Each structure stands twice: as C-alpha cells, then as structure tokens.
Amino acid sequence: MSRIVDTVIVGGGMVGASVALRLAEAGMQVAVVEREPPPAIEDVAPCEVRVSALTHASEQWLEQLGVWKALLAQGAHPFRAMHVWADDVDGEVVFDAASVGEDNLGHVLPNRLIQAALWARMTDHANVTACFDSIEGFETEASGVHVVLEGGDVLHAQLLVGADGAFSRVRQLANIPLDAHEYGEAAIVGCVRTERPHQDACWQRYTAEGPVAFLAMQDNLSSLAWYLPQHKLDWVLSLDDEAFAEALTEASGGRLGRIDWVGERAGFPLVRRHAQRYHAERVVLVGDAAHTIHPQAGQGVNLGFLDAQVLCEEVLTAFEAKAPFWVPAVLSRYQRRRYMDNLAVQRAMDGFEWLFAHDLPWKRPLRQLVMLAGRLRPATQTLTRLALDARPGSY
To answer: What's one Pfam family here (predicted)?
Structure first.
C-alpha cells in the first residue's frame, strides 16, 4: 500500500498521539505508525506499572484536545500536597496546593489510560490513518519524505515526526547524535497499598541509596517509584510479594505504615539522554525521542507535552498560512523554544540526584541548607507556583 499524507508520526504513545490529534483537528492528513493499538479506556486497570503525574499545563493541553473529561470520568486522582524529607535532615518540606490558592497540584493517571483516551478520539478523526506496523527506513528528497514500513507499505509525507521513545528508530535513521549519561541507578515502579491513608498526597523520602516515592491514586492505592543502586535491581525484583513489601516498608521508613498489598512491578536502569539537535531534513523529534530525564520529579511526560504543544504551534502557523511547514526555519523555531527548557530541567534533576544520591559526609550540610530553605513558606509557594504554571520558556 502507498498513501500520501501531510505528516507521518512514528510512535503513538501519549506525546505522539497528542501531536497527531492536534494536527488532524487543524486539517492535516496524518498517519500514525504504532506496533499495536492501546486497550480501550474501560479496560485499563486503575493502578498500573507506569503512571504519570500530570501538571496543570498538561491537563490544559489534554482539555484542549478534548480528552480530559474522559480521563476525569475514569478516576484521574488529584494530589493536593507533596511531602519531601531526608534521612539525615530534620523536618520535611511540604508543597501544598492550598498555599497557592489551588485545589490540587495535578493528577496521577496510568500512562495507558492517557494513551487510550487520546487514541479513542484520534482514531475517530477522518484525518488520521493508524498504521499498526514499525518503521523500516525513510528517504528524503525535494518532493517530501518517503517512509517505508516493515510490512512493505510506503507513506509519502512532507514531515516525519519521531515520537518513538528513548530508543527512537527515527532518531537513529536521521543520524541525530545523542548525549547520554548512565546514573548507575535503577527505578522500580508498580502499584501498592499502604496501611495508612495517603491523604491525597505524594510522599518522597531520600535515603542513602536513593529516593522512595508514593504517588496518591484512588482507593488508597499508590504508584511506587523506588530508586536504588542498579546492581540491586534484579535481586529486589526477584523477591516474592511478602518479602518485597517488607523491604519497601523498611526503605520508606514506615511513614505510611506497612505495605499491605503489592501489585505488578517492573524495573529499569536510569539514563539521561538528550539529542544534540531536535530536527534534521524533514524530520523532527518530540518527547522521549528527544530527551529523557531522571524521573524523580515526574516531569518526563509533562516535558513531552510541552514539546508537542510548541511543535504543533510552529507547524500549524506555517500550515495555516499555506507556507512550507517542514522547512528548517520552522523546525528550528521549535528547537529554540524547547531545547534550553528541557536542558534546564535535566540539570535541575541532576542537581537533586547529585545532592541526595550519595551518602558523603560533606554533603550533609548542603542537604540541611536546601531542606531548611525549602521549609520557608515563600520558597515553597514559589516552587509550587512554578511547577503549576510551567509553560514553554518558564524554566
């Protein structure tokens, strides 16, 4: 099969699907290449292995795309505060929505639920073609970009968007260099229930081996993010449910009581990645294909949605003016608006990782100073408002 469209998007995850939907609603013909469709919204479990803590900016983007109400109806759970403390420092820092006149700091949702809601709306759109396949390669020439799929189909377009994740095939095929840093740490994610109620809050404890975080979800369930040295990953994942719950209770300091139920869990090594540029000839990267960060602040998909917004703004400004939307001038504007923002967040996350991840005695006074400053009300209000109002260029 051969098909002509305006834009091909490789990767139908949360970020790629949001780009597809926005472009389609503006009148573009879009093809989305994804191995398989997500489940129906009603088939997604309320607490899955992979979740995202969405900021207000991300929620507004999803509302603009017409899917936020569906997500609220499926039990998107608000978190109203975040409690942060460290083993070797007295007290804690609390980021509270009420302190800045807000009802919540955001919502925690399963990634597959967000993807499913976007796909339900996207595939209903006459301007979207879903191709359940993988990219084999592509060629660019004066007339456009020709995308060859593994199944043999060919898609002809003016622009190719790589939204295919951290191991992006599009990025590799476009020969876009990548800077990467391995932290020597791993994350275990999953779903747990605690003895004590989570109080619609997120709880994060910094230990000598790394942070342990619980993100509030419905029915007193919490999404777990447990960071530990990479060499311990396989051993911890091999524990049965009872032993895992005991180890996690100890690692969390028992702040929420015992871990009395453990669901499915998974682990992965932590790597920071940043493409040296976000575009090549008729090719552009968004989301994890362009950058990944240390996940301790849960900003990954929020940065990806900001990428999606800015890319759509720049591309549609040209498209609606009947000007070429695939040219370097357009794609460079997107890169200028997003690259330094993403780099700033990466560096901030690296700073926290450096400060708290290694139990060196000379760092303790620095940790005490940071935690003390964080307990000052103006500081917490400023940081809370910054996180809530994150927009392109706000970092």
So the answer is: FAD_binding_3
